[in-house]
UniProtKB/TrEMBL annotation:
The keyword DNA repair does not apply. It comes from Sphingomonas naphthae. The lineage of its organism: Bacteria, Pseudomonadati, Pseudomonadota, Alphaproteobacteria, Sphingomonadales. Residues 2-87 form the 2Fe-2S ferredoxin-type domain. This is PDR/VanB family oxidoreductase. Keywords: 2Fe-2S, Flavoprotein, Iron, Iron-sulfur, Metal-binding, Oxidoreductase.
Amino acid sequence: AFEVSLARSGTIVRVEPGETMLEALIGAGVDILYSCEQGICGACETRVLAGEPDHRDSIRTAAAHDQLGTIMPCCSRAKSSTLVLDL
Ligand code: FES
């Protein structure tokens, strides 16, 4: 499990191994766009402010994400214990 810290609201959302980051965010009442939930549409793309993402989508390479400071929460996870998102 890892935690997602939401920079705008100050909310901390815990993501359990059996759920996606997107599911955890929606469960916490976060208003986030999404569509495919498979890492192929790009709708959920979110800015990462801190932490080390584990990119698993098919849209951008991990290097491109890290350069842009973005993540797809529908399928990607975290290598660090916390990710800070621009949400
Ligand atoms: Fe399609 Fe995340 S919802 S890439």
